[in-house]
Write a structure and sequence with these properties.
Oligomer: single chain
Radius of gyration: 32 Å
Structural class: alpha/beta
Strand content: 25-35%
Helix content: 10-25%
Number of strands: 35
Amino acid sequence: MKKNESISGLILAGGRGTRMGHVDKGLQPFRGKPMAAHVLERLAPQVASIAINANQNLDTWLGFGVPVWPDETPGFAGPLAGLEAGMRRCATPYLLSAPCDSPFVPEDLAERLFEALQREDADLAFAATQEPGKMVQPHPVFCLVKAELQPVLSAYLAAGGRKMDGWYKELKAVEVLFDDADAFRNINTRDELEQLDADGSSFPRTGSTPPGEPHFADQPQSLAQVASCLAGYDPNALPVRDAQRIIRDFVTPIRGIEQVALRSALGRVLAQDIISTINVPAHDNSAMDGFALRGSDLKPDAPTTLRVIATVYAGRPCDIVPSDGECVRIMTGGVMPNGCDSVVPQEFVTADSDTSVTIPPGAIRTGDNRRLAGEDLKAGNAALRKGKVIRPADLGMLASLAVAEVPVQRRLRVAFFSTGDELRSIGQPLDEGCVYDSNRYTIYGMLQRLGCDIIDMGIVRDDPQALEDALRTACENADAIVTSGGVSVGAADYTKQVMARLGDVTFWKIGMRPGRPLAFGRIASGAHSAYLFGLPGNPVAVMVSFYFFARDALLRMMGAEAPLELVKARSAGAIRKKPGRTEYQRGILSRSDDGMPQVRITGSQGSGILRSMSEANCMVVLHDEQGSVAAGDMVDVLLFEGLV
């Protein structure tokens, strides 16, 4: 990688991001840092200096540590307006541009474009690629241009021109062919971003961060940076889906892998792909008890009589090769003899004697009841993928591959406590005006189902110093902290002030029922930090908030992907609801007379009625945009049974 002191670099981030949902694309998280940070790391070593063209979230962009230049031509004219702004302010003879949503920028882009521009005595050089059997694809947004040509571009924009390749028609431009088409790939949609983010193998890795540039991998984004990617972000009226997205984008997986014995791997998160070293099954074998034969021996319109020459048992292969008109009796799992390609079940044949059977016409087709070697799993293929929560069937799969020890993520450590002077623990006398603390037990149960290492810190009284001490202790001993109570607007709710003083924490009013108040962020104590989930105090609201906000984040920290699965059911009765917020109503799922799934509400849906949660076997999810539900309408349902 060679630095050219006559070139300035410009990252184009001034668009509206319409295909990404009207967000600032370059600020979207990708492999642990904003997309634009990857572009910055690749361009910075190639040029004398670098700047960013952006038109919104300017404070966030300034956090990249480089100049930020907005468009000077109004109206979001696209990359050309950004290029114009860069050419106006460029302090070097040449300007190199690249878009913020292309994290695969070649590390020799500046060198190759500059060499071609000099060789051809051109005004502008741009990248192009050609895939086999296809035409050359130009990439004019990856261009090197003489800064002195800014008046030509400004005149083109003033005349209404907007095409990236239209402004230099009268100039001398040279096309530079690059081999790697993926290096110029734009990530335009959220689906593309998530797919590439998951598939680390396809991402060209960069070297170390250039001197003087920010180390984004070591400086996680702030909550404000993540939230700035949302259009119309309002912490006092935040839709459920936006809160979920901010949390998901903010948390990062823990590090740490350990080898555990196979039986101890149940419920743990697989830390690496398990690659099969053998075919499963190892040999072609019989799917049932019967007779192995050659399909070519079967008569299509008449009975077929074959001579039985041997018996093959599972685990005891034989080297007998049947000839025409012969077959072998075989048991389920027995290795198919050479030359045999089909198995007829024993109940389909007539035994003429101990050494002869007759098969009626059409009993089987060639190839029936034969399991092929590698049919379940071929050697060299992944048996289980990283991130999978290991279930009983997975233990069997691993055992079939002779895997004795399994690489798993270390367990996530989660501390939790309840807040409030009115709370009493089991075994204590219940003073007037007090209640027994139920939230710690429901939180314990939900964390236990996730497979976390749990630290129960009991009840913390309504006192700022007590809360701070508890949060610091939790932070120094856990990866995540879950609290209940103290995040609303009550006079004795000191949690907000303490949380905000200890770290990067935001307080939301979610557009949902039950469970409107929620605190989320990251706090630090000494050299330790932990993610914090401040749940409301009402018992049902605690469970709803945990399932729909904390659960997914904790699983993400564990390196697991186990999204909530909603199923459809018919509502047994009418449900009143106003559009504009998400509602979670406790329900009982059953089968109607016609066998279809049907759900009815448990009755009063107050957020303090824990009995309704205990009676329910599911939760009816009424989304933000939904209105009232009529009897017979289909609704989304979250089943409690089997919920991790």
